[in-house]
Amino acid sequence: MKKLHYSFILFTLLIIGLSCTKDGGYYDPQPIDKEYKGTTYEYLKSKPGIYDSLLRAIERVGAVHLLNDSSVTLFAVTNPGFQIAFTNLNNLYALSEKPSQSLSTIKYEQLDTMMAQYMIKGKYTANDLRQQDGLALTTARYDYPMHAKVAKTTSSGYITGGPEYILISDTRRSQFNKDWVSANTGSINIHTKNGIVHVMASDHVFGFDNFITRLTFNPPPPNLFKIIGGKQTVSRENGGGANGVEGSNNAIDGNSLTKFLLGWSQGNSVDITFELVRPAIAGAYTITSANDESRRDPSDWNLQGSMDGENWTYLDSKTNQVFEDRQQQKVFRFVNRAEFKFYRLQITRNNGADGMQFADWTVNLAK
User: Fold this and answer.
1) Helix (H, G, I), strand (E, B), or coil: what is residue 284?
2) How many of the other CB atoms lie within 10 Å of CB of 87?
3) Domain 224-365 adopts which CATH fold?
4) What's the rounded Cα separation, in Å, for the pair 337 and 313?
5) Assigned fold of 34-216
6) The model's pTM
7) CA angle in degrees (0–180, nearest 5) for 167-172-173
8) DSSP-derived secondary structure for 6-31
9) Quick check: 31 pLDDT over 50?
10) Mind listing the pLDDT tens digit for each residue in 207-245?
């Protein structure tokens, strides 16, 4: 009887001990690694009803070999992610009485660009992304900069007390995470013979918030700077000169990775003038935002034309403009029937920083 009594006491103490160590205010589940013995492409094919749209996109852009032969981390978008994207697009097209689109009919270049963002060069599990600031990644095609880090959901009222997920971000080629567009995974660490698969959350819409913009963008007419030629002058120059790292010649090089940067304070302005080899009629112009610091973007400006560089005609003006993305080209159209040899962009205000910058500008043929 005494032996039974001691056994009961030991059992009770054991239960109490377990209950004291059961919950430290959060739980820290280790990610469960799942393995598939085939390639990443074969894994997708083995899941009918889940990755059908993704497979069609991969096949159309010619990326099957990447997922069969190369070391790639795939952030896999499920069917709903494509369905929502196309529903939104086709609803917009219907308002304009345009034919509906599908993975087979949308512009190849746009699909290829968006699809590339989900295929990362190298193998990265959640353990590889645990640095406090995450990890800068590069796409397997075109070396586009992405970023990923491990995070935790909230559980039982405790912040970061739940399961892990990966936050994958389109950096928009900006070093500032406020400019990034991010999305969560729903499942992580699926190992295949040649790569790693992380599955995007079911509410992720294909394209990192850029699907509609890319497929409804109306490109500008031909660039007069290129088809006619000429020379550019500016009323104020970067300290490094026109050919410097951030000089004015960057504004007409057609490369959104370079920029023209000036110091700026309230009341400043700058004139950027392009003299064509011969006069031409313009009907549009573009400005492309730079790679970082949106507060440096131009906010107010006007466009003028002249035949002699002395007498100017106002063609268009804008105020309180905002560039939603980095390296974003915006097209501005205006009515004009007169030809001019000189075109001048006069920037009079930025968005509040002590510098003003933009990547490119063009003046475009009237159509």
Assistant:
1) strand
2) 12
3) Jelly Rolls (2.60.120)
4) 12
5) FAS1 domain (2.30.180)
6) 0.64
7) 110
8) HHHHHHHHHHHHHHHHS-SSS--PPP
9) no
10) 999 898 888 877 899 999 999 999 999 999 999 999 999
